[in-house]
Amino acid sequence: MQDEAKPAKPRPPSLFDALIPLVVLAVLILGAILLFGDAAMDGPLQLALIFAALVTALVVLKNGHTWDEVAEAGREGVSSVVGAIFILFAVGALIGAWNLAGTIPTLVSYGMDIIHPDWFYPAAFLLCAMISLGIGSSWTTAGTIGVGLVGLSALVGVSAPITAGAVISGAYVGEKMSPLSETAILAAQLTGTEMQTHLRAQLWSSAPALALALLGFAILGAADGTAGVSETVIDSELSALSELFAITPWTLLPMVLLVVLSILRVPPSLAIIASAIFATLLAPLLQAEAVLRFVASPDLPMPIAFIKAGWQAMATGFEASTGLEQVDNLLSRGGMASMLPTIWLILGALVFGSLLERFGLLLRLVEPLLERARTTGALIATVVGSAIGLNLVAGDQYVAVVLPARIFGSAFRERGLASSNLSRAVADGGSVTSPLIPWNSCGAYMSAVLGIATVDYLPFCFFNIASPLVTLAIGFTGWQVLRNDGPQPASR
């Protein structure tokens, strides 16, 4: 009896194989943007990512892999983002609930009294930086205080896209530098770097980037702030807020709860949804008239109306009708349903990126770059460039942090370079650039919660742009590039 023929071993991808999906993705994304403009985020961009994933699957099948392997890779990509999906749903519920309870209106009202337009941008940047350093989460910072600041910008007559850039810049100061940050911990662990050593190395790129960002926002504030709206318009907006809501410090309790839970390291999705539920419970006590006006069901008993209002605000968002467009745009937001297009975008990007990673297409693209990186500066530039590229094609900052840390670790050890050089390059290339890409999970999230298109706020994310540039300067000048006294331990 003859032996059964063994299935052919899959072929490794060629460089041409690896390039095909990227070219297809670039063409489809460009076409979506040209044809649909800002509306590309409402479906065309998601479709482009799914078609690019299908093309990648065809390349993989051509090389001898099975459809079951392709399906398993797609499932792995989706499973890796389940946590982010729950956070997105929770933030959608939070925005609706905070509007219902008067938390966001109170933040905006106090902000209009305190923050002058001339220093609005640097104040927004520093406030978000302090909060993110304390809680270690860029998403939580942007999805809470960031929402209020962007809403406030429209009311005081300064640029909402610039404010969004200041919010994101500040939020990513903590994402890079907080010892509580998940990506900072991940970059340190994967490169075998002690956490404090990693943070000290980060300081050499973060401090100059922070100073440059603060200077940029100060210049924009001085140039743009004095062109704000008149005191009469601001008074009418404040009046509209106070007519709809009771403006009181008690409405800030849901935000206090969220900060406390974040500091206690409660998982983000649980902390955010707990704050949202607390806000819906607080709303009938503080904003009874606003709640009943929102639910618009006079036949319901009052307790049932309160339950319906909280349920509706978390599901589909809060709606206001004051007659003032800026106020209505600020308050008519939120709800888990508002996050569905963003989740669709993230799922498409993660499936595409997972196929590229699982079947060696990403590694095939990186290998030629590593072979050409002969100097220390070129090696660090390769890490930063690869991390940015992974943010573009894989659609997730964790992939952009994990893969370069794994791929380039041996090269740094062989050249006698301290692992902190790699951890800094990975963080500056992979973490802070993620919100600059519309189809990346971070870019999609920031655009969804702040209500500003990624391409609009991107030029003003000064900290996010400056950080990788400073790291490149460090690499090519040799300043603060540390070397080992002995062999570097493998990643833990």
UniProtKB/TrEMBL annotation:
What is this protein called in UniProt? Na+/H+ antiporter NhaC
Q: Topology with regard to the membrane?
A: Multi-pass membrane protein
Major site of localization recorded for this protein: membrane
InterPro entries this protein is in?
Answer: Na/H_Antiport_NhaC-like_C, NhaC_Na-H+_Antiporter
> Which intervals hold domain Na+/H+ antiporter NhaC-like C-terminal?
170-479
**What is one term from the GO cellular component aspect held by the record?**
plasma membrane
What is the scientific name of the source organism?
Devosia sediminis
Q: Which GO terms describe its molecular function?
A: antiporter activity
Family from the record: Belongs to the NhaC Na(+)/H(+) (TC 2.A.35) antiporter family.
Membrane spanning residue stretches: 18-37, 44-61, 81-107, 119-139, 145-173, 203-223, 243-264, 271-296, 336-356, 377-394, 457-482
UniProt keyword annotations, A-Z: Antiport, Cell membrane, Membrane, Transmembrane, Transmembrane helix, Transport
- Has UniProt tagged this entry with the keyword Transport? yes
What is the annotated localization of this protein?
Cell membrane
